[in-house]
Input
Amino acid sequence: MTSGAIIALFFVVLLVLMLSGMPIAYSLGIASAGYMLMSGTSLAMMAQRMVNGANSFTMLAIPFFFMAGELMNISGVTDKIINMAKALVGHFKGGLAQVNIVASVFFAGVSGSATADTAALGSTLIPKMVEEGYDLDFSAAITVASSCVGPIIPPSITLVLYGILAGEDVGKLLIAGIVPGVIVALFQMVYTHFYAVKMDYPSYPKATPREMGKAVTGGFSALMMPIIIIGGTLSGVFTPTESAAVAVLYGIIIGFFIYRNLKVPQFYESLKRVGVQSMNNMFILAAAACFSWVLTITKAADVLVNLMLGISTNQYVVMLMILALLMFIGFFMQASQALVVLTPMLLPVIKAVGIDPIHFGIVMVVALTFGGCTPPVGSMLFVVNSITKMGFARLTKAMVPLYIPLLGALLVIAFVPQFSLFLPGLMA
Output
């Protein structure tokens, strides 16, 4: 069999395995092992690449970020975050919907997870919105859309994954996500304002200085976690991994001694969940290292580079093609899975046309995260559907108008790189 046929078979096997529902780590590993066997490469190389792929100090940030989010969620920060958001933006038209969006931004700085954001805030805010006169369709849709900021604003597990896969500075990537995350939220807030005016949704009385101070004070302990991560990384006091470890320590102090909601059995269960999640991610990254090696030795990525550059060498046209690809893939794959597969293939393309890898990492994460609120595999849709019981088809239909501000935010982030690169530039 020719080398071209072997490469083609490699991608066919990979695609079939992923479409069959096999976990991404197994799909990558089996496809890579198959290529090595057919090309006469020793499988000892596979073991070597997997060990090298998992041997990363930066990777320690992943379980620490997982654990920090777990501790803060258990500690009961949700109500405090909602109260603070209500004091800040509740007086805007469509007050509770605006609170939903801003609370997601704050919660993102605690959990770093879109699905955790959706579950925590959705279970509280959707029934409350319906009670106050918001229609169920809009209440559910805005909850899904607002949760998209979770993987963008630090701490972001997805950005850490991209940093490891792309060999980029994780600290700069985390900082780079702040402004784009705010942009996503602002686009949704503008849309919500006009929709609330149209539907005549209510707003709350403007908070008094005393009420504002009480709400901010109550929520400040929760916001200290992203402040520790961002401040420590920007100042150079901590590496991203060290910031994550300090965040865990802070979560322990908050949970056990300040809020006193965290108990030893809950802490133990959190450790087990984080251990499983972390091992899963480590296995994925180890398998991804094999996949990247196969792409390198086969020069398969060069085919994609030549294909795209054959259409156009214009940076903006290439970015549009990549965005279309990312949005399409996001329909069928979870963000982390798509990230593992596409990062080593797209990096040569963006470098060939002069797109900054830090900026591209933000664009990639934003685009793939939006896939979480699109059918057929959108994880946030499933979470909200489990809360509302409104039906997947109805929820998907309700989401259609919210795709407009999400797409608008994505285009601004993609074509104005300064929004992503300004804060990382301060670290240089």
About this structure: Residues 42-425 form one domain. The mean pLDDT is 87.
